[in-house]
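tool=predict chain=A
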Amino acid sequence: MLGGMPEAPQDLVMTLLGAHLRPRDRQAWSGGLVELLGDFGFSEGAARVALTRLVRRELLAKVKDGRLVHYTVTPRSAAVFEEGDNRIFALGRHEQEPAQWTVLWHAIPEDQKVARTRLVRRLRFLGFGPVQDGTWIAPRDREREVTALLKEQGVEQHAGLLLGNPAGSLDFSTFVSRVWDLDELAARYGAFVDEFSGHDPDTLSGRAALLLRTKLTHQFRQFPFLDPELPACLVAPPVHRAQAVRLFHDLYTALAPAAMRHFDEVMQP
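tool=predict ok
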């Protein structure tokens, strides 16, 4: 298993498809996906179980063509990909200070535990941090995204949403530094730069380019869960964030031709 790669092959499938399936409504051959997962250290059995579970979760749809099995992206996963692209490729590029902050309260019943778990994960991806149980805060106006998320999970009747500005009479920077682990965030950005600096895409085979591009994407897509992109007037930007963002965009783009050619070749039955 490559260091830093997901423990669950389901996550890897979604990373692979999100980064390399173009157009996203095309079909992906099951045998090709199993082969690619094998390159990352997963057995054929584990790969096929992962694909079956993604179908059960309604993230992939299974299509049979004779003896061949293909998979397509569902509307649900297409929405996840779109949200992910918007967040990942905009990370570190907010130039204006937020005019408002978003505060969410929720009291989701225990019998809707799955919806609550999904809500929490998506809130973190949108830059929210937990103030206390059931209370979340994020810089910038996130009303549209959160309202859509609450309705998607069917829990809007258990939540409240507020937009507002921090009071200037208290030290808000100290407060937000307790909501997010900013030291750990800075260390993660530094480790990302150390790990992915120095690669020359022109020297890599298609297989090596796909492996590196997938690993790069998986590692970078963790930052939206960790980095709320706090305004610089409150907290200085994390050390190495700007360098990590440039490195991701440059390497992601440079690796694309070889990686996507290899992906397309493997997807041929």
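The CA atoms of residues 234 and 252 lie 31 Å apart. The beta strands are 28-29, 60-65, 68-73, 101-106, 129-132, 135-139, 159-164.
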